[in-house]
Amino acid sequence: MGNGINKKKQLKLATFLSGFGSNIAGWRHPGTPSDAAVNLDLYIEVAKIAEAGKFDFLFNADSAYITKDSTPYFLSRFEPATVLSAIAAVTKNLGLVGTFSTSYSEPFTTARQLASLDKLSGGRAGWNAVTSALEGVARNFSHDTLMEHGLRYRVASEYIEIVKGLWDSWEDDAFVRDKESGQYVDLDKMHTLDHKGEFFSVQGPLNIERSPQGRPIVFQAGGSEEGRDLAAREADGIYSRYTDYEPARAFSEDIKRRAVAYGRSPGDILIFPAITPIVGETKEEADYKYEQTSKYVDIDLAIQYMSRFFSFFNFKQFPLDEPLPELGDIGKNSFKSTAELYLKMAKDENLTLRQLALRVISPKGNYIGTPVQVADNIQSLFETGVVDGFVLSPHVNPEGLRDFVEQVVPILQDRGVFRADYESSTLRGNLGLTYPENRYTKARREQSASATLQA
Question: Which keywords describe this protein according to UniProt (predicted)?
């Protein structure tokens, strides 16, 4: 099945699939096409750079709500299933992870879209399961208001359970396709879900067979209590915001503890923090690149972008260059954990509104420097065991990703930290995750074993 499980733990790398990079004004960079968000050639170039660098996957974030105040990247961009399918046709090993909402779509539709992507890509699909945290998204899907935070995660839990059930509709060897005998399929190996739950009623089966990796990889990005709990129960990978050791360690231990409580192994979930590396021949050159790209950002645009994480709270009522006042629990029903993180950052560092907005819009962490410095910082955190890899959010595309692949990846490879070539043709295999046995095949095998013991 192409499991390709690694004998020695290796660093995993991914990159966000966004036309502009992490800078919301990246379209102004001379090396980035101005229409990068809808430029398929640019997306294909990014994918090919990532695959040349032996990256595990692309991570396509998404949202379904815009306003006149939205930043340029959000105003016009591809829907995930469409662009990832296009990229599947021009890549061979690179994983393709897309964001699909559990709040404003049907489980059968999502299961079918992702299973189709998984099959046509030869087992390289992944699902970033999100609950959607913007009020405007609800109004775009016939809802008056956003569901309460806890309710969204209850819905998500049942939704993911259904999708996984639908992905088991067919056992691995169900499709015989024997031309000589005329048997196309073994219908005894087709299974109807017949789910009737609190929020959904789904009959099944799904009308597409399993892929070489069994089913798509499930990612989760929630950092709240409910989000962490859902990830620990259902996810194969989790997106993290923590790149400093202590918070990264605490997050990892919490996720692993929850996973074990659900009967899983600590190694069943991979943790991927996001970083924005900027590489220069010297630290000064890398800092200069950061400063230059930051100049493209208009402060009003930065504040508007930040407000998305707080249900579009009106931050412009506060002075730009004075510390932010105590803001209580704003954002509690939106991007809850992200909002809490930014408010804590503002309080701990006594940041002004301007400073916080620029920090949010153009992160500056420990991954700006020479290739060796960037590689050192990545290796240092990875070898503590609290993260399994990183999702890159290049400051601009394609320059930022290309610099990393050409200058940092060879160092990590020479040190034996990162692969020299792919271990597998599937995303699951390259991530070193075990193959998910079909539940019906497993039940049949267990029944057979029990019968043998009783005989």
Answer: Flavoprotein, FMN, Monooxygenase, Oxidoreductase
* Residues of the binding site for FMN: 62, 99, 149, 153, 224
Q: Is 68 buried (19+), middle (13-18) or exposed (0-12) by CB count in 10 A?
A: exposed
Alpha carbon of 61 to those of 54, 76, 79, 126, 326: distances in Å? 21, 14, 10, 12, 31
CA–CA separation, 51 and 378 (whole Å): 19
Which domain covers residue 44, as residue numbers?
12-284+364-442
> Token pair for residue 170?
């067919």
Task: Provide the number of structural domains found in the chain.
Answer: 2
Contact 276, 394 (CB under 8 A): yes
Distance CA 356, CA 361 (A): 9
Residue 129: C-alpha distances to residues 110, 132, 171, 233, 234 (Å): 10, 9, 24, 13, 10
In the block, which residue shows the tokens 């016009």?
A: 76
Higher-pLDDT residue of 247 and 452 is 247
**Is residue 220 located within the same domain as residue 340?**
no
DSSP 190: B
Per-residue DSSP letter, 173: T
Model confidence band, residue 2 (pLDDT cutoffs 50, 70, 90): very low
- 452 in a domain, yes or no? no
* Residue 205 is assigned to a structural domain of this protein: yes
Residue 213 located in a structural domain? yes
Average pLDDT along the chain: 90
* Statement to judge: residues 333 and 376 lie in one domain: no
CB 250 within 8 A of CB 345: no
Q: Are residues 232 and 342 in the same domain?
A: no
Q: Which domain CATH number covers 430?
A: 3.20.20.30
195 contacts 162 by C-beta, under 8 angstroms = yes
The number of C-alpha atoms within 13 Å of 441 and in the hemisphere containing its C-beta is 15
**Do 164 and 201 belong to one domain?**
yes
207/347 same-domain check: no
Residues 36 and 104 in one domain: yes
359 neighbors 290 (Cβ within 8 angstroms): no
Known binding-site residues equal: 62, 99, 149, 153, 224
Residues 350 and 381 in one domain: no
Residue 5 resides in a domain: no
Closest CA to 46 of 78, 72, 75, 76: 78
- Quote the pTM value: 0.87
Quick one: residue 225, left, alpha or beta (phi over 0 = left, psi -120 to 50 = alpha)?
A: alpha
Burial of 85 (0-12, 13-18, 19+ CB in 10 A): middle
**Per-residue confidence band for 333, with pLDDT thresholds at 50, 70 and 90:** low
